[in-house]
Amino acid sequence: MLLLPPEIQHKTKIMSSLIKTKNALPLNKQVVVITGASSGVGRATALEFARYRCTVILAARQQNELEEVAAICQKLGAKALAVPTDVTDESAVNALAKAAYDFGGQINVWVNIAGVAIMGEFNAVPMAEHEKVIRTNLLGAVYGAYAVLPYFKKQELGTIINMNSVGGWVATPYSLAYSVSKFGLRGYSEALHAELYRFPQIHVCDVFPSFLDTPGTRHAGNYIGKVLKPVPPVTATTKIASVIVDLATNPRNSVTVGAVAYLVRLSNALLPGVAEFFMAKGLETYMKTGEDAPVTSGNVLNPTGTYNQVSGGYTSKTITEKRVNAVAGIAAAAVGALFLIRRIRK
């Protein structure tokens, strides 16, 4: 038998621990916590896990809406518990983790989806609302990981799934706090993933979709005074929910969803700053020509009690996946040409 030197054995052990393993536990045996479960991607994700008869613990600020989602999950054959939670409150998130463990006897998946957004010129948005966006989108996810990791480490098993966006790669002008939260979320996930290398069955996964057909746009904070709309083509929340459920058994560090999301990441890598510039110019044009809307903080500070459904109603039936891929291919070729021109000029 060949014996390796101690230093080589140590390095081999470290490398083997970097290889993460799949979650062999069937979905119907898993206990899943979902924040932001009252609407949009969170609601769609709760229903998708329920279809596999998982045990789901649903969290959001609105009790009535949570109980409604829990009742639907139960009709689909899942065990469900509604736990009203403001993810910006660390003690409330800790209580959520305890309630989930007491209800399910274990915690296998923690999905950080709760999020808010606000559009407006930086100094036009009150600082308290900037802070609330960052606390919800970023610290809410950090609090979630902090609360659930002791359970995961005791089990030596578990998956954290963070709902990011293409905004985690390319900054969004006139939405500064959102950009701070999404860039920060990506950094927190990557750092935590690296820190957990000794736990091959504990996973940290990020989902990066393009623009979504979510009601979140309708109850976002609005300080531009124009009707807010996602940039087409939009991705259905049910598609993102399917990706998240797949990560519960086939965890991966990062998943990008949609041709547009890939294109934006590519353009940012090749021509940093260009995408942000064109988004800023486009928003400024829209602020001059778009349909007027009242200035509002939306659901940033407090839930509005409206638009608690899976879809935002923005999906265009005329935009097919084939068309999206064709447009993305042309745009990617253009980005590549610009990159070559830039290199030649140097």
User: Which fold name corresponds to the CATH topology?
Assistant: Rossmann fold
Give the CATH superfamily.
NAD(P)-binding Rossmann-like Domain
Shape annotation: globular
The major beta sheet can be summarized as: 7 strands, parallel
Q: How many H/I helical runs?
A: 10
Helical proportion?
A: 40-55%
Walk me through the structure.
This protein is of the alpha/beta class and 346 residues long. It has one domain: NAD(P)-binding Rossmann-like Domain (Rossmann fold, 3-Layer(aba) Sandwich), CATH 3.40.50. The protein has helices at residues 6-17, 40-51, 63-75, 90-104, 127-155, 176-195, 237-249, 259-270, 274-289, 321-345, and strands at residues 31-35, 55-60, 79-84, 109-112, 118-119, 158-163, 202-209, 212-213, 221-222, 235-236, 254-257. β6 (158-163), α6 and β7 (202-209) form a beta-alpha-beta unit. α2 runs parallel beside α3 and α2 (40-51) crosses α7. The longest helix has 29 residues, at 127-155. It is globular.
